[in-house]
Design brief:
phosphate transport; 7 helices; Methane Monooxygenase Hydroxylase, Chain G, domain 1; 0% strand; PhoU_dom; Phosphate-specific transport system accessory protein PhoU; mainly alpha; transport; 236 residues; PhoU
Length: 236
Amino acid sequence: MAEHISKQFDMELETIRTRVLQMGGLVEQQILSAVDALMAGDMARFDKVIAEDALVNALEVAIDDDCQHIIARRQPAASDLRMVITVIKTITDLERIGDEAQKIARMGKTIYEADRFQLPRFREVGKMAEVAVSMLRRALDAFARLDPKAALELAEEDQQLDQDFAAEIRQLITFMMEDPRTISMSIDTLFIAKAIERIGDHAKNISEYVVYLVKGKDIRHTTLDEKKRETLGLDD
């Protein structure tokens, strides 16, 4: 980003960038904790993830407030305005990822608290979670490095995550058809898999905001081929 005459303005922009990454780190830890608790049946950890969602919400409000003050005081234009807009959009997606992590924890508690004849196998869900966390890390790294090319990789990976989710649905339907006693457990597991799939969607969104920040192009709701043209084929 261009350096400003006002060093204070530069510091304010860098501060909100740093706080976004801090929020991203907290959200990532929430996902990992929720999934680890799911694998281990750790009720205390479920409760911790649920309680700490309030920290994520508070960070979103605080960063959003900082952005509003920057707009009011500095009246940013061009790339500076895109930075502030990108931050506002990114923290919205991060807050929603935090909500999905909390949902995983809540559904995990429901599964382990229920008196069921068997517990679900979470192997495929765990694999999906690894992909989603990796996508979030790379989206945040792209934001930190102002690298728009990551959006292409994440768009392709999000398609694969969607396919994995569809495969999980088919498997759960098979379980329910073969043994009606698995219906309740399978539905809870489906909600967890859907939460993970949504985390991938939000990570992809964040990477697309980076393209807007760097290139000034909005590539949301475009095909993969259009994303390639806009991200790789345009001058800065």
